[in-house]
Amino acid sequence: MHLEAQYESAKLVCDIQPQKEHTTPFMISRDACLGEAFNFFRPFTEDDIFLDIGSGDGRVLMRAMREGCKTVFGIEVDGGLAEESRRRIADLVEKTRTRTASSETVAEVSSEETQLCSSWTVFEGRFENIARRDFRNFELRECTKVYLFMDVGGVEVVSPILNEQLPSGASVVSLDFPLDTEHVCTRLKLQLTRRVGHLDIYCYSVVV
């Protein structure tokens, strides 16, 4: 899909429910935390599909693109942040495209730049609504790497849906709040935890 058409399609507003449910405030993922999270996610393959639940200003999606992930999705309930992230990602992709086109040889383009050819979409709406609707280009059951930085209320909302729909072998990273693997996320197995600054990072794999 051309970037322009993709950008327009990403403006799809999916939140058709009244705004009475829990809403997690935007919390910035610091570089040190992202570094630990992506150490767990690596390596990325061309078949990986990355999802950031509560994608904020798009910084985690852009990190996934730089890591080599070819398909990334963000879900953000705040319309202003969703639009900001679309602008930032579109600008990054366009700058990389211009840089690549102006280079005389492949050697002049960094490996990071050549990897930035991802298919990307940022949905505006609630995860629980989007995950259960039928979209032509998005299916939670196909997502292989999932990142979330939410408060405890947000984690409680998304956990049963992740447990139900994520495919076996998928990786999940949750910042600061663990998933309830005993009662809710019974298909997720905790692989490791890390403490970075004042935040805990919980890394899971989805088992059969």
The major sheet is characterized as: 7 strands, mixed
Number of strands: 7
Strand order of the largest sheet: 3-2-1-4-5-7-6
- The first-level CATH class is given as Alpha Beta
Would you write up a description of this structure?
The protein has 208 residues and is of the alpha/beta class. The protein has a single domain, classed as Rossmann fold (3-Layer(aba) Sandwich), CATH 3.40.50. 35% of the residues lie in helices and 21% in strands. The protein is built from seven helices and seven strands. It has helices at 3-9, 31-41, 59-66, 79-102, 111-115, 127-130, 152-165; strands at 49-53, 71-76, 119-124, 145-148, 171-175, 188-196, 199-206. A seven-stranded mixed sheet has the order 3-2-1-4-5-7-6. The termini are far apart.
Short description:
The protein has 208 residues and is of the alpha/beta class. It is 35% helix and 21% strand.
